[in-house]
Design a protein that fits this description.
This protein is of the alpha+beta class. The chain has one domain. It is 20% helix and 48% strand. The chain contains one helix and three strands; from the N terminus they run E-H-E-E. The longest helix has 13 residues. The two termini are 13 Å apart.
Length: 65
């Protein structure tokens, strides 16, 4: 039975160039993208007005060696 290893990476929407570079880098290293999820976190700080921040989390897998 194949055993897998996983890695997850998060990005902000303003990091699109870095995001694409990382996708290609991990793909070239044998990692397969298996999930991608947008996330949103709302701050509760009194100093930033409760601004929301968004991000993207991606999960890759590859067979263990």
């Amino acid at each position: 039975m194949t055993q897998w290893e996983y890695i997850s990476i998060s990005f902000r929407p303003d990091q699109l160039d870095e995001f694409q570079d990382k996708l290609n880098k991990f793909g070239n290293l044998g990692w397969e993208l298996v999930a991608m999820q947008t996330i949103e976190a709302k701050s509760i700080s009194l100093f930033d007005g409760g601004n929301a921040s968004a991000g993207i989390v991606v999960v890759f897998k590859r067979p263990k060696e």
